Each structure stands twice: as structure tokens, then as C-alpha cells.
Amino acid sequence: MQLQVATRKGYAVTEDSATSVIQAVPFPMMVIATDRHVTACNAALDALLGRGLVGRHFITALRQPVLIEAIESAIATQRFGKGLYLHREDRKESVYQVHIAPLDGQVVLTFEDKTAVEAISQLRRDFVANVSHELRTPLTALNGFIETLRGPARDDDAARDRFLGIMERETRRMTRLVGDLLSLSRVEENERIRPQEQVVLGDLVKMTLAELAPVITEGAAQINLQDQSANAWVPGDAGQLRQVIGNLIENAVKYGVHGGEVTIEISAPAFHTGLRQEGITFAVTNGGEAIATHHIPRLTERFYRVDGHRSREVGGTGLGLAIVKHIVSRHRGRIKITSSQDDGTRVSITLPTSQQG
Q1: How far apart are alpha carbons 156 and 161 in whole angstroms?
Q2: Is the pTM above the cut of 0.90?
Q3: Regarding beta strands 222-227 and 261-266, do their DSSP bridges make them parallel or antiparallel, or are they unpaired?
């Protein structure tokens, strides 16, 4: 590739190689000559595909039929084109959009990393699919019951009462789902804004326990509160922290053993390595069935359930721990989940006691 440089008399053509130009480009780049061999690569491309590509036929360098076809088309038509290059390394998959630019009989390829964009698009598709699934099930049930009540069960009082009870439960579940979706949206919207209010974590826990009295009574749970915080303050959004506390306690009661003990611990302020500053830990432990290790990293994903049938039976939407994760993130805290047959399931939240860190 020839390069024009400015002189006092105009422009002069130099014989500098394309490498000297493309090395300055931060994106991976490759130049393919008219004989289909690679004539130049920059350091970013070497990092992506490895060294030693110069002099090789571009097919042996890229090895992806769809991209090769796009390059051949651009060479044949001398028109700009695009393709995708899929890269896999250490179980990590990356997606690059390749811009194909014909230039003086040669072709310049520029690789643009689209991995993050693709991940967000996939997340949105999964989210829409999950919401549709969660709403379709109760809506189908409601539609069926309405048709039955209008037809065969029109004059059956017992069936009507039973169906209306089921319809009420399904309606409540949809209402909870919509409420959790709105809550998750609000939390994500403000996740980058650190809360400035000062709250006493111990007081929030006691207030939340009072609000959850009906749930605790229904589950016959024995609450063991161990508060070592001595009314210590944390910077936080009181409403959101009550939501976190309520979610964890309610989960412990509903998914634990009926009539079992639920232990709630609030630690004294202490230095935490994960926060790199002083913090307070709030933890909830129940004695329910242990959660398999492979489930634990995914528990805070939207709509992820260990036991989907049981979760729906107790009114779960699959969004509770996802909301907790985002609220804790907004408060610059840390969440940890452990589970074993002997010690039960423990979810702990560590929050900084100051705005530093």
C-alpha cells in the first residue's frame, strides 16, 4: 500500500508499508493484497489472532466461511462490506464486526468488538422471553377458568368458589410480578447514584420484622435476632434497604422448614477486606434444604429459580434476589450466599458505614 505525504510542492508518494500506518490504530486491522495474502497486521490484531499471519493466505488466517465469503464479495465488487468474526478463548466468546474496505485493489479489515452490545441484546431478548412466559401461564389459567365459569360451571357454586380462589391467587401473582418489574426498573435507573441518607440498620430490621409478622406466623418460624450493631449508622436508602431485609427474611421463612428457626445477625462495625473499609454485615440463615453449589452463582439472576414449581406456589416472582443484588450494588455493598446441609442457607449483605471506598 502506498502512502501520500504532504510536501511544499504538493503530495508525494512514498513506499512506506501499510504497517507503519495501521500500527497507530487501536482496533485490530489486517491488510490483504491482490493475491489474497496478508501483507500487514497491527499489534491489536496480533493480540487477537496471534503473530505470524503476514505472508499467509487470508483464508488460513481467518478460517470462518461466512466472513471469507464477505471478503471475497468485497474484493470482487470493490465495494465496502461487513462480516462477523467469532473468537473463543479460555471459554470466553467474543463477537467482532469486521469492516471490509477495498483500497487500490487491496482490502483493509477493521475488527470492532461488539461483545458487550451482543450481550446486552441477548439479555434483553431473554428478559422479554421470561416476562412473556411468566405472564402467559397465569393469563392462560384465567382465560380457561373464565370460559368454564361461563359454560359448564355456570350453576356450580362449589366449582365457582374454587375457580375464583385460584383466579385471585393468579391475579395477585401477576400484580407482584408487575410490581417487582417496576421496582427493578427503578433500582437500575438509580444504581449509579449513591444514597446520602443515614439509617440505623438495626431499626430497619426490627421495623421490617413487625411488617412481616403475618408471614412469620403463617410459616410458624422462630426468629432469632442477634444485633451487635449498637445502633450504628450506614449511608443508605431506607426504603430500598427495607426491601432487601424483607426479601431475605421472607425467603428464609417461606423456603425454610415449616416451624423452623430463622437466624438474623447484624454485626458490629468492622473492617472488611472486600469493601476496603469499615462495614456492617446483615445476614439471614434458615435451616431449609441445602441449595446445590452449581445453583448459587446464578441465584441473583432475573427469573432464575432452583425449584420453579415451589417458588410459584409460595408466590415468588424470580426477581427478588435480582432486586437485592442491584440495591446492594447501589449501596456499594457486597452479597454472599452459602448453603450446606448442616448449616442451612445463609445470605449475607455487607454495607459500608461511610461514603468512602
Answers
A1: 9
A2: no
A3: parallel
